[in-house]
Amino acid sequence: MIIGLDVGGTHTDVVLLGKDRILQQAKVPTRPSSLLESVWSGIEEVTRGIAPEAIERVVLSTTLTTNAIAEGKLAETGMIVSSGPGIDPEGFRTCREFHCVRGSIDHRGREIQPIDRAQVESAADGMRSRGVRYVGVVGKFSIRNPKHENEIVRILGDRFEHVVLGHRLSGNLNFPRRVCTAYLNAAVYPVYKNFFEAVSASLKKKGLRIPIYILKADGGTVTLEASLSSPGQTILSGPAASVMGSVPYASREEETLVLDIGGTTTDMAVLVRGVPLLDPVGIELGGYKTLIRSLKTHSVAIGGDSAVRLEDGRIQVGPDRQGPAMAYGGTVPTPTDALAVMGKAAGGDSERARQGLLPLAQQLGVPLEEAAARIFDHTCKQILEAAAQMVANINRKPVYTVQELLEGHQVRPTEILVLGGPAPLFAFRFAAMTDFRVRVVPRWQVANAVGAALARSTCEVTLFVDTERGFAVAPEESFHLSVRRDFDKQSAVRLALELLRKKCTQEGSADDGTEMELVEELQFNMVRGFYTTGRNIRVKAQVKPGLIPEHAQIAAGLFHAGPTGGQDHEEDSHG
Amino acid sequence: MRKTPMVETPSKVGLVFFPAYDWAISPTHPEREERLLYTQDQVFEEGILDLEGIVELKPDLVDVRDIRRVHFCVPEEGRVVTESHLISAGGAKTVGIEVLEKRVRRGFALVRPPGHHAMRVVHGARGFCNINIEAIMIEYLREAYGVDRVAVVDTDCHHGDGTQDIYWHDRDTLFISIHQDGRTLYPGSGFHTEMGGPNALGTTVNIPLPPRTSSEGFLFVLDEVILPLLEEFKPEIVVNSAGQDNHYTDPITNMCFSAQGYAELTRRLKPDIAVLEGGYSIEGALPYVNVGIIMALAGLDTSHVKEPDYDPNKIRQSAATTRYIESLVKEIRETRRRMAGGGKARSGDSTAQRRRNIFYDTDQILEAQEETLRLCDRCNGVLGIDSRTDRGNHIYAVMIPRKACKECCELGYEWFDSADHRKYNITFLQDRTQDQYLVRKA
Lengths: 575, 442
Prior knowledge:
The complex is a heterodimer.
Chain A: E1 2-7, E2 11-17, E3 22-29, H1 35-47, E4 57-61, H2 64-70, E5 77-82, E6 97-101, E7 104-105, E8 111-113, H3 117-129, E9 134-139, H4 147-156, E10 162-165, H5 175-187, H6 189-205, E11 212-215, E12 221-223, H7 224-227, H8 237-246, E13 255-261, E14 266-272, E15 275-276, E16 284-285, E17 288-289, E18 297-300, E19 306-311, E20 314-321, H9 335-341, H10 350-364, H11 368-395, H12 402-407, E21 415-419, H13 423-433, E22 437-440, H14 447-454, E23 459-466, E24 471-474, E25 479-482, H15 489-506, E26 516-528, E27 531-543, H16 551-561, H17 566-572
Parallel strand pairs in A: 1-4, 4-11, 5-6, 5-9, 9-10, 13-21, 21-22
Antiparallel strand pairs in A: 1-2, 2-3, 7-8, 11-12, 13-14, 14-15, 14-18, 16-17, 19-20, 23-24, 23-27, 24-25, 26-27
Chain B: E1 13-18, H1 37-45, E2 54-57, H2 64-68, E3 72-73, H3 77-80, H4 83-100, E4 106-111, E5 121-122, H5 133-145, E6 150-154, H6 161-167, E7 173-180, E8 204-209, H7 215-233, E9 237-242, H8 259-269, E10 273-276, H9 286-297, H10 312-315, H11 319-341, E11 351-360, E12 365-374, E13 383-389, E14 394-400, H12 406-418, E15 426-431, E16 436-441
Parallel strand pairs in B: 1-2, 1-4, 3-5, 4-10, 6-7, 6-9, 7-8, 9-10, 14-15
Antiparallel strand pairs in B: 11-12, 12-13, 13-14, 15-16
Helix pairs in contact in B: 1-9, 4-5, 7-8, 7-11, 8-9
């Protein structure tokens, strides 16, 4: 049995999956003061009377790091940054203790200017004397040659509790994002470590020896232990859980739009033949642009509880939420109230919803029911427009070869999968308004927790080879190898796949490697004068987001059981 | 303290980046796959595409209609143009559209292959160029947005002889080229006495600089000649053919310009649209020069953008070079003054001839060309071109300019209709008043 658990802002969704069905599902209120308690109460809710040995694994998706960043509850962190020439690194200052030091590496990984030991020592001493315990070290082009970052760490010695190295976080080029990513990883480290220790202690206390996995932003899982080295990866795993929960039902031939309709926002994503699209660079959260690998998701501030008002006689939905719908005790009319007036949602106080909508109907000069229908339609239309915009943005992504440009694959979703509280009501309307095939994800209220439970591990390896300079480097793995002139793309691909397999095992994948794929394989002849002096090879390999092999049976079970009927959504349509 | 803070961009810049990683003239040719690889590395690593106000755009391809507004391709477009040229020109066009639609303030097409050696008649590739990507963009913008007056400032180290040829008779296009003196570098033209055809005298300006000119020299001619000319011409848009081979590390030229210098030139020139041309120091120059140009276009601080081995003292031009450039500037001013005093082209039945041999170095083709221009004071004048190559092609092409007067229009059709089809294997008519292109094969 597998437990999937998604800690959301207001609710924690949890499922217990058996071989071919959901054995238990629950929704418990999230206690912001104690994440661990929310987790345990969720687990207890679904495991009553179950022998702990029967549980193979628990997969957690938490808002821990997301909230820490969004609420600015970050530990005081110091940064040591060496940039060399380029944009003034002061522009990328992330914190008060931001120290730019000498040292420069160029695009091929050559050292241009060495590190100044005394300068680093002095910055380190200063930070330590001011009580800094967490530090990020980042160099420009450190993924081509991590020498300077490694040197700085050696100079720092044991002055600090935790030091994050930029080149270990991602194989992608982008110095400012590397700075941000290292900063966030260092700054959320203590809060994440507390959580990690609390979970471990609590498991021990209860005598449980269940492997715990953490869901990452890219929709993959990683063991709790491995997640500690880079807690930033767990940012925004919530939307990833929902996307993974829709994967079992998506078309394997065509492209799918996933809409997760919540109270405040609607999260959207695109699946291509059942595989979620990844963001090409990395997550953006709370004003931070990072290199954290994530699913390509887009969030619009329109949900069931969005405030509805008239502006210049036109209906405006969102972007704000002023508490729950009026039918549930709120003070501002919402799309949920519109549904209540239309008689579509039996829950809540429909009389209050009617009262709430009445002034709007009067201003519009139409009967109450028509006003409600217009509000609901407007909500649906705005969500669809935002989705179309997202698809257009995906299709605008630049490519860099003639062949790719001419092939010009365009994403054109043909179906919509809807999940979240009011999913069936919206799905019905979407179907009427568009040509898409529209379906509701089975058990749409807990599909996110199912997604967490079924997600498999993911990882990525970037390999850079320069045969003229005679080396191969995979920065994230701390891998460096001297290579000869005859090292070619084929050897590089083989090496990258080998490194990927190793990484998968380290991060807790039970996968046998059959799902590995190449994301990028480029080889350039380096010509100086009129002679080829070497090869410049770039290979990126990944295990893409997907589901554990057991998923098929469970999904099939759910699918044939069909949606569990109206009762559930009545309870949840406001959430 | 800011969160992602980042650097504020005063002026919004649209960027097309198209390195064409799967296209080369030949494996070891300077114009090969690897050319923009390190530039991409530098641009990505600097995080430039994340800067607020920098937008990366996906290039559209240009189509045959776009090419036919500028060129006569022999025997036809498909035979002298590859997809990568369509994308490269398309990149320039995409940037132009974004600027004209005011979605961005300025734009930069960082594309390859280049285009400024491509002339009006195209039999093949010259100086790594097949079609003129700037001219194709400009003529599209004129057609689609009604742009009239345009200035092209070509800062590539090689004379922009293709662009000069296309705008030689166009008084609405000010073409200015600064380049290494033609006596010391391909294509061997671009002397200051080359000032445009009789209907458009003075709208072509050449500033041939001596080898080893450094930032001081470039910025001097910019301030003393180029900026005043732009002030006087009052173009609606300024296009910069932003070649980067004036760099002190370029392997096929002999100049001493730097990333700092290019950034400063861009800041002062303030082009609306910049288009990459040459530049073959792919590791030592392009990564830094391009970053400098992008940041300068965006109005950002470029004082930290430097090559690893940058030492302004080592590359500073000699006093003799400074004196030479000063006297050259004086000479250019005097020549222009004399020209302004001279008689204007007379309208009437008279025509002017120009005979030239054009060598296509990349494709090893020799072309003999004879132009006939109707002298006209009401329009740029109808142009007839007789062109024959050592490959056996002999064509006749008539160009009726955009704002042609009635007489020039009628004469153009008369020339086209009466062209001897036994003599020419193809006869072309480009009628820009109707955005029309006719082809008659023998």
